[in-house]
Amino acid sequence: MNTHYRMPAEWEPQESIWMAWPHDRSTWPKSFDRVLETLAKLVATLSSGQEVHVAVASDTDATTCRRRAAEAGANSDNVYCHVLAFDDVWLRDTGPVFVERHDEGGVSRAAIGFTFNGWGGKFPHRHDEVLKHSIADIMKSPLVSPGIVLEGGTLETNGRGTLLTCQPSVIDFQRNPHLTRGDAEAIFAKYLGCTKVVWLERGLDGDDTDGHIDNLARFVAEDTIVAATQEDRHDVNFDVLKENLSQLRALRDEHGKPYRIVTLPMPKPVMEGWDRLPASYLNFLITNDRVIVPTFDQPSDTIAQERLAAVFPSREVIGIRANDLVQEAGAIHCLTQNVVKL
User: Fold this and answer.
1) What distance in Å separates the CA atoms of residue 316 and residue 161, rounded to the nearest whole number?
2) Which residues pair with 6 in a beta bridge?
3) Do the beta carbons of residue 273 and residue 313 sit within 8 Å?
4) CATH number for position 13
5) This model's pTM is above 0.85
6) Enclosing domain of residue 84
């Protein structure tokens, strides 16, 4: 049977969004309660327009999640809690990637289950590695395993066969010691339907994923890319983002035309002690009716939201404070995984 897959763009219709409710206070030892408040607000924001599935570690956490989300204004009819085993909350990386499956029987949904090894063995992942099986079963989507280590945060597509990714988090000895670019591109073509792959060379300073694309550059339309830029020449990210922007501006689409490039500023450095955190406005989430943007209590928050509103005129742009989230090196997009609607 001739079967092929297509990874939709994030702005295409979604059935639901998956996320997880934190259960380990040691993950955010200084701000756990504030993180729960932030996630409750996120659940409430998402549930106004579509279903939200939340992985929880216990029935007690399910009760807490529902209560706090309701207090934040959630549409409780759209919130579903599932007691599952998981280590951490970053479902963009640990959950399956939902795609369209095209075969002789028509179009159905499948879940691509890349292997997860704790971002190259940096963090515990015994439960996170098998979480994709549970989510795929709940969504009644067959799980397909490409056989390489990869996280969803390094996959960005326009839904028309072009993929943006960042090399250090894919071609990495701690993840895939023998994988070449050619090998990866063959897998992207087979399991995601992406036949053109754009490799950015470096990620943000402080990104312990080794560089995920969802902090660097995102498609917002088939012909439009938003890219992070740094104006401070003395900032450690200046050269990285300048190189990325130059590469993106030189890109041509399938018709030989340049992409429209929209820039988003970087927030001023967000620190945890002496450590730089990977705070980026690019870690936004696109839903059916909204764009949810991480904010950092800075004047540049408004600039980022205004520029995204200009490229998403039919969606409401909402900022959610992410200062506490980014203490663990992630934000809104990292927390969530969208499920394509057929």
Assistant:
1) 27
2) 100
3) no
4) 3.75.10.10
5) yes
6) 4-340
